[in-house]
From TrEMBL:
Superkingdom per UniProt: Eukaryota
Gene Ontology CC: one annotated term: cytoplasm
Record has Metal-binding as a keyword: no
Species classification: Eukaryota, Fungi, Dikarya, Basidiomycota, Agaricomycotina
Organism: Hericium alpestre
Protein family per UniProt: Belongs to the TRAFAC class translation factor GTPase superfamily. Classic translation factor GTPase family. IF-2 subfamily.
Keyword set, alphabetical order: GTP-binding, Initiation factor, Nucleotide-binding, Protein biosynthesis
Tr-type G domain: residues covered: 1-107
CDD domains recorded: IF2_mtIF2_II, mtIF2_IVc
Molecular functions (GO terms): GTP binding; GTPase activity; translation initiation factor activity
One protein family per Pfam: EF-G_D2
PANTHER family according to UniProt: TRANSLATION INITIATION FACTOR IF-2, MITOCHONDRIAL, TRANSLATION INITIATION FACTOR IF-2-RELATED
InterPro entries, A to Z: EF-G-like_DII, IF2_II, P-loop_NTPase, T_Tr_GTP-bd_dom, TIF_IF2, TIF_IF2_dom3, TIF_IF2_dom3_sf, Transl_B-barrel_sf
Protein name: Tr-type G domain-containing protein
Length: 463
């Protein structure tokens, strides 16, 4: 959102809190300014100067470290000390912005076709799709036909930031425009044209979008066909050589995905949320955004999430009862919150659950083989039983065991015979001597260690 704002503005006002100083978001804005430094002027507003104990000089030097040279310390970037609470310095800030605009000789054409950009869009009750449009050229009036991306509008109602109706909008003004056929995307360019030209342009843009999507699908199909052809060739070669070949699909080896359908109150919020969630994951598990939209959760969203075997994230939007009932019957989880950090925590938890389960082997008991005995079972069959002493822990018959010889595990299995004198045991504690045999293993030797263990699931860590 900050990048979009920086791309359509002429003067950037960088607000830095005097008590916090330079923060990550401050650095982000500075980087955006540096990318277009030739076309954008920077003004720094140091806020919260009314708070006791603030160090303005420290803020100056913090900005200097980020290569922002303020006029107060010999640089060329103007700065103003302000207080949003008391109003201190706000008049001076306005004067500074006006002076910078005059020095830059910022001008815009008030005649000709309208040009602008969508800053924000949402679905508003009673008006349908609406968008906040910043005008950069021309004069926008009700009844004007405009195009944005693959949607268009005949302007019905325009409201300013105070909610008052506006009849004409000139460059530098931002208004909420209603009358859109569909919800436009934030950041897209707005252009004016005749009704016929606008509709032709929409058709051409939709055709271009379909062609691009088709090319993407064709590339995926061709890639799959190449994999199938390679597999068939390997199978033919293997058949000729009398061997067996196994070809693993790349898709099977890829990371597991948490598929999300995201709905938000406004397009800017959805954009920010998508940017935050797409970075969650690693090479084993990750987030995949199936679709995004603005407005309340609908039954169509539930069907889409069900088809993708994913979940729905409702960010600052309601979930109507019919949609909630459909999600419940379809076993589609819905997470609703107005706090982005809670959404990130929830998604991180779900992605972490997709990680493969790993176990730690924990030794719970040990027994040392002291002597070996051959027990006759009849029909000249014998079983080798190890006379052993429990040296550590409590040995339980139900737990798996491993045989350790000279520091190396030579066998893993389960206990077969487990007796003390003539009594069968289910468990034995340290110091008890007993007879032990292991299922499927007849190579016990004196001095071997029989270890009983249990597999403990390791906590899953995403990062």
């Amino acid at each position: 959102m900050r990048a979009r704002g920086a791309s359509v503005t002429d003067i950037v006002v960088l607000v830095v809190a005097a008590d916090d100083g330079v923060k990550p978001q401050t650095k982000e804005v500075i980087e955006l300014f540096k990318k277009d430094e030739a076309n954008v002027q920077l003004v720094v507003a140091i806020n919260k100067v009314d708070r006791p104990g603030v160090d303005i000089e420290k803020v100056h030097h913090s900005l200097l470290v980020e290569d922002v040279h303020l006029e107060a310390i010999g640089g060329d970037i103007p700065s103003v000390e302000v207080s949003g609470l008391t109003g201190q310095g706000l008049d001076q800030l306005v004067e500074t912005i006006s002076a910078v605009a005059e020095m830059q000789d910022l001008r815009a054409e008030r005649d000709g076709n309208v040009e602008g950009h969508v800053l924000e869009s949402k679905v508003q009750k009673g008006l349908g799709p609406v968008a906040t449009v910043l005008i950069s050229r021309g004069c926008l009036k009700p009844g004007t036909h405009i195009i944005c991306g693959t949607t268009f509008a005949k302007v019905r109602v325009m409201n300013d930031a105070a909610g008052q109706s506006v009849k004409a909008v000139y460059p530098g003004m931002a208004v909420t425009v209603s009358g859109w056929k569909e919800l436009p995307k934030a950041g897209d360019e707005v252009l004016q044209g005749s009704e016929q030209d606008v509709k032709k342009a929409v058709v051409n843009r939709e055709r271009k979008a379909e062609e691009d999507a088709l090319l993407t699908d064709v590339e995926a199909i061709n890639s799959q066909r190449r994999l199938d052809r390679d597999q068939r060739e390997l199978e033919v070669q293997a058949a000729a050589q009398g061997t067996i070949v196994q070809v693993e699909r790349a898709a099977d080896d890829g990371p597991k995905e948490l598929r999300l359908v995201i709905k938000g109150d406004v397009s800017g919020s959805v954009e920010a949320l998508v940017g935050a969630l797409e970075g969650i994951g690693n090479k084993l598990a990750r987030v995949k955004i199936v679709s995004t939209g603005v407005g309340e959760v609908t039954e169509s969203d539930v069907l889409r999430a069900k088809a993708a075997e994913g979940m729905i994230v409702a960010f600052s939007v309601p979930v109507p009862r019919p949609s909630a009932a459909a999600a419940g019957s379809s076993n589609v989880p819905i997470f609703s919150s107005a706090i982005i950090y809670k959404v990130m925590d929830e998604v991180t938890e779900h992605v972490t659950a997709l990680l493969p389960t790993e176990y730690d082997r924990r030794i719970v008991a040990e027994a040392t083989v002291l002597q070996l005995f051959d027990i006759q079972l009849g029909n000249k069959r014998f079983k080798k039983v190890a006379g052993s002493r429990i040296t550590n822990g409590i040995l339980q018959k139900s737990k798996p065991v491993q045989v350790v010889r000279a520091g190396t595990v030579v066998y893993e299995g389960h206990l077969d015979t487990f007796r003390h004198l003539k009594k069968d045991l289910t468990e034995a504690s340290k110091g008890l001597e007993c007879g032990i045999s292991i299922q499927g293993f007849q190579d016990l030797r004196e001095g071997d260690t029989i270890q009983s263990y249990e597999n403990v699931e390791k906590p899953k860590v995403l990062y």
